[in-house]
Amino acid sequence: MSVLVTGGAGYIGSHTAVELLNQGRDIVIIDDFSNSKPEVLENIRKITGKDFKFYQIDYSDRKALENVFEENNIDSVINFAGFKAVGESTKKPIEYYINNVSGALVLFDTMRKYNVKKFVFSSSATVYGEKNPIPYVETMETGKASSPYGSTKVFIEQILEDIYKSDNEWDIALLRYFNPIGSHESGLLGEEPQGIPNNLMPYIVRVACGQLKELSVFGGDYDTPDGTCIRDYIHVVDLAKGHIKALEKLEKERSGIFTYNLGTGVGYSVLDVVKTFEKSTGQKVAYKIADRRAGDLPAFYANATKAKEELGWIPEKTLEDMCRDSWHYIEMRSKS
Ligand code: UFG
Is the pTM of this model over 0.90? Predict the structure, then answer.
């Protein structure tokens, strides 16, 4: 029996693939390399000493996907395929809805055809929208997301709710990620956005290594202790382990749809991250306070109790670990 990991060469997918292999599971990875590189697969093999089957396909290519289900004994799916850049999604909503929503529907239809009904979905804290108070709790109404990217997460969660209502043989976990950063401690896997990064940590590491001049801290006048935005940063390895716990829960349950926040429950400001990065890596991060970025919320973080109580998932890595590991990956890349 194998776990199908879609988008398994990507940032979170590759870290999750490592944890699945470390558990002794068989996995099959599909990825179209639209935002990842083939060498990631080699690095997954290097870290784990294990092999797996790989198909270079687009997950919305029905024929190619059916072939994967034909050729393998798949009994569960973890879906990381999809576009994820918030800013880009406002410029290319059609591409985002086609790839994320239509792609997911092809996947669900194919799963149904092959009677595979265990599914773990990478959702996002963005589904809580702008109106909910913090910390976010799973029972809150999901809101109107602030970007097409966020809307794709809201829609897919809704689609999965409907699928479960129509056929409660499905076992579904909706995992709402907060802000994943960090990388595998080996330095072999990490986050490498193409072009100028939009997210905070990829930007910080590029300033630290001299590729970018300075970080613009978006907004210094928010109603927060130091005036900068607060987020719940979560180490990608902890996040990956959350998927394993969720999958184990689905394997134990007869059926259900379960939602979990995957965050630490602790908020840090942008300046906290900059200072912690400097302290834990010894690298200087030049920054200036700039205008607010449209669409940013002043502060959000998780109520992380449910995942802890029901899954036994407790994030172990500190903000120092996250900063150090993010930097280690870049150092290793510059040496290779
Ligand atoms: N930031 C800067 N300068 C930068 C980049 C980011 O100051 O160059 C700040 C942002 O203003 C924000 C914080 O750093 O306060 C984190 O920003 P990111 O872009 O790293 O992450 P976001 O919180 O904007 O994004 C997260 C998730 C998305 C989700 C979104 C919803 O990564 O998946 O929240 O708001 F959709």
Answer: yes
